[in-house]
């Protein structure tokens, strides 16, 4: 049964953190707004990724730190209380109910339609609801696609029969597999390998490339690999899975065959081999786009291949930066842009202007919640060289800091700062070591604020904290090059 079409200023498809922020900002700009969601409000991050995975990792990281603190190491040898860990995970995931998000949505005045949304032409969306109705929505100003991504499973024989884990199964499981094979050495792979090894699984990490965290500075992946190996993870690099099967067709025992003919067995296999856009059944063909593809946008988040300026793509689906916080940043800007355009106002699209996503290109922050933590923002050395940016690399051993020695005995870590030699500003920073995640916002401010080194010299770090690394990096830059500061 179809209802009469409903007209809104803005239709948002996808109610994860990105869609929620777009809807909030559009409504705050005075635009009538509706949001469509086929699963749970809060999306992947709240229920199957960021929140539950960090809930699993927090006790792991806390115990790893405690083991290095004099006077606590014996107490930290006790196994984790699995029931308590899983209960905390369940609380952080809201027990997979979205009542709080629904209440919040009501409080900001945004309408909700539950169901599967498909474009049916310019500015038109049909929502197929769980009770078999079709709700027709039209947008006066904008349709915003915020459908995010899902796990990109490789095309290998047997994968459709072994019921592999993705991030969803790995963050929601209540039982620890005896043997877990993790395929992929990126952020999801190393974080979940860290978690499940500490929870009691024997983890084998299968990596196609020659190292972990390949998009970051090499030392970051090397430090994480060393800690994983010390914890008992079997890391195999330069390998490729060519087939998988469950010989008895039941839970347990997965047979994994590698390209060199080697075989190994696991009770579960987790694929963390990248992400794919959730656009396969979105009706893209009705507006001239190819289903299942990433949506290319300009710096105001309008989809470039659709005329008329009404279709926007925000968050993971535009492939700019597949992180929740960056998607929310884009959402805040996109909501302001839609509001300004609806009001006929001029946009500020200058670098770091109110209506352009400059940080997508120059200051994307990221934390990897492993032992040790990795935190980065801005350019890496490889990216600077690839793009022709003139930078000087400044490294520092974090273990030399009094704050690091206070943090843990035998502290291992490293910091790297890239100096833009033409502008004398910070172009990128990477930290790897226990407790470095909390250094990241200061680094992000330095990069996005384009703080001159002469001014940064006067930002005095407290002693004894790990943040003293800022002073040590600047001193190293000064002393190695004989530069005044």
From TrEMBL:
Cofactor (UniProt): FAD
Question: Which Gene3D superfamilies does this one have?
Answer: 3.30.390.30, FAD/NAD(P)-binding domain
Keyword set for this entry?
Answer: FAD, Flavoprotein, NAD, Plasmid
Q: Entry's InterPro entries?
A: Class-I_Pyr_Nuc-Dis_Oxidored, FAD/NAD-bd_sf, FAD/NAD-binding_dom, FAD/NAD-linked_Rdtase_dimer_sf, Pyr_nuc-diS_OxRdtase, Pyr_nucl-diS_OxRdtase_dimer
Residue ranges of every copy of the FAD/NAD(P)-binding domain listed in the record: 8-326
Q: Which domain of life is it from?
A: Bacteria
What PANTHER family does the database record attribute to this sequence? Answer: DIHYDROLIPOYL DEHYDROGENASE, MITOCHONDRIAL (PTHR22912:SF151), DISULFIDE OXIDOREDUCTASE (PTHR22912)
Protein family: Belongs to the class-I pyridine nucleotide-disulfide oxidoreductase family.
- Record-given protein name: NAD(P)/FAD-dependent oxidoreductase
Species of origin: Streptomyces tendae
Per the UniProt record, the lineage of the source organism begins with:
Bacteria, Bacillati, Actinomycetota, Actinomycetes, Kitasatosporales
């Amino acid at each position: 049964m179809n209802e009469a079409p409903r007209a809104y200023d803005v239709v948002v498809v996808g109610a994860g953190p990105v869609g929620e922020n777009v809807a909030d900002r559009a409504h705050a700009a005075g635009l009538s707004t509706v949001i469509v969601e086929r699963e749970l409000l809060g999306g992947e991050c709240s229920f199957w990724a960021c929140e539950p995975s960090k809930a699993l990792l927090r006790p792991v990281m806390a115990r790893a730190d405690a083991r290095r603190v004099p006077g606590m190491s014996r107490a930290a040898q006790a196994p984790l209380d699995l029931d308590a860990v899983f209960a905390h995970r369940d609380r952080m995931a809201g027990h997979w109910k979205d009542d709080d998000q629904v209440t919040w949505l009501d409080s900001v005045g945004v309408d909700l339609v539950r169901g599967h949304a498909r474009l049916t032409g310019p500015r038109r969306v049909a929502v197929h609801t769980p009770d078999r109705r079709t709700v027709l929505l039209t947008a006066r100003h904008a349709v915003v696609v915020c459908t995010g991504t899902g796990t990109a499973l490789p095309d290998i024989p047997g994968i459709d029969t072994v019921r592999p884990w993705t991030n969803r199964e790995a963050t929601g499981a209540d039982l620890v597999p005896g043997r877990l094979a993790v395929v992929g050495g990126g952020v999801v792979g190393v974080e979940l390998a860290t978690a499940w090894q500490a929870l009691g699984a024997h983890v084998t990490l299968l990596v196609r490339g020659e190292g972990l965290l390949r998009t970051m500075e090499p030392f970051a992946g090397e430090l994480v690999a060393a800690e994983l190996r010390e914890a008992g993870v079997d890391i195999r690099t330069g390998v490729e899975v060519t087939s998988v099967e469950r010989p008895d067709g039941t839970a347990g025992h997965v047979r994994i065959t590698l390209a060199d003919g080697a075989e190994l067995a696991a009770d579960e296999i987790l694929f963390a081999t990248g992400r794919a856009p959730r656009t396969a059944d979105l009706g893209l063909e009705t507006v001239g786009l190819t289903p299942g593809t990433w949506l290319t946008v300009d710096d105001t988040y309008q989809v470039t291949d659709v005329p008329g300026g009404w279709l926007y793509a925000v968050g993971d689906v535009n492939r700019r930066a597949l992180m929740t916080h960056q998607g929310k940043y884009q959402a805040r800007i996109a909501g302001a842009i839609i509001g300004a355009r609806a009001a006929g106002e001029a946009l500020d699209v200058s670098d770091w202007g109110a209506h352009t996503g400059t940080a997508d290109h120059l200051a994307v922050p990221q934390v990897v919640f492993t032992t040790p933590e990795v935190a980065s923002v801005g350019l890496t050395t490889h990216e600077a060289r690839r793009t022709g940016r003139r930078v000087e690399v400044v490294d520092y051993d974090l273990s030399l800091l009094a704050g690091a020695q206070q943090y843990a005995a035998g502290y291992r870590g490293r910091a790297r700062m890239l100096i833009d030699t033409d502008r004398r500003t910070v172009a990128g920073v990477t930290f790897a070591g226990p407790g470095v995640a909390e250094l990241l916002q200061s680094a992000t401010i330095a990069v996005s604020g384009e703080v001159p080194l002469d001014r940064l010299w006067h930002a005095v770090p407290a002693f004894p904290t790990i943040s003293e690394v800022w002073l040590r990096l600047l001193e190293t830059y000064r002393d190695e090059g004989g530069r005044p500061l």
